[in-house]
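@here heads up, posting the sequence + SMILES for the nicotinamide-adenine-dinucleotide run so it's all in one place. Ping me if the SMILES looks off, I pulled it from an old spreadsheet.
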Amino acid sequence: MITADLQGKSAIITGGASGLGLCAVELFTEMGCTVAICDVNEERINAQVTRLSEMGRHVLPAPADLRDTNAVDNMVKQAAEAMGGIDYLVNVAGHSVTLEIIPPGDLQSQTEQLWQDIMSVNLMSVFRTVKAAEPYLRESKGAVVSTSSMSGFRSGGSSTPYCVAKGGVATLTKELARGLSPDVRVNAIAPMYVDPNDTNFPLKWESVFEDSKDLPIPRPGTGREYAEVMLFLCAGAGYMTGETLHVDGGYNA
Ligand SMILES: NC(=O)c1ccc[n+]([C@@H]2O[C@H](COP(=O)([O-])OP(=O)(O)OC[C@H]3O[C@@H](n4cnc5c(N)ncnc54)[C@H](O)[C@@H]3O)[C@@H](O)[C@H]2O)c1
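bot reply: prediction finished. Complex structure tokens:
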């Protein structure tokens, strides 16, 4: 369990209405941060804003479809104005787009449209939010944390375009770290197995407990554990930028 004093700080957390993004919203607001909850699902945003506000947390709705550049620009501007700036941009939103695994050998199922849809929601979305938030993050000397995946570092994720998009998040993280220096630190996390209680990801990893039982840490990671790494990369990690931390229970050990 790590803590930080985020009183007076403000963050946009994308994908914040569900799963790992919601766990990050919970943790950042617990530390005193004001958080704009960005998601495409307005109903879920409103439910979480109501619930968290009743707990005394500082949250505001920031609905946007991250596949739409204008929507992202407007969302970031409105959130920054409402919060008086942006200290942290936490990119968690992502989508498998497919509802079943497409093996890497099945090239015929990988249509142009599938590639474009997956790249837009998982990779371009990160570029769009960072581009829109750049002036505010430079002003605050803030930090960006994005969400890659272990799928970006090995074959055999939900589909080839998803793996490539998540690998692209790590590459983009390096580019942005150099590009926004010395004002803004830019890092990412690469999750592996996620506790099913802490995710609504459309493509369900049914055997997550079975598959993770041989890891050095023999279980899936909780949303809180992933969120704690995001918090560390935002509020601490002062000498880290351009890095993608593998948060994988020792999968790579
Ligand atoms: N669940 C896993 O096993 C796993 C493993 C590795 C990486 N990841 C990555 O972690 C991140 C969080 O996943 P999760 O498990 O919490 O999934 P989730 O589905 O619970 O949460 C993702 C959120 O992103 C939102 N979103 C989807 N498309 C959007 C769009 N176009 N615009 C705005 N918001 C959009 C969804 O509405 C949802 O609230 C994703 O980037 C995912 O790729 C997940």
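MO: The chain has seven helices and seven strands.
MO: One more: Residues 10-247 form a domain with the Rossmann fold fold (CATH 3.40.50.720).
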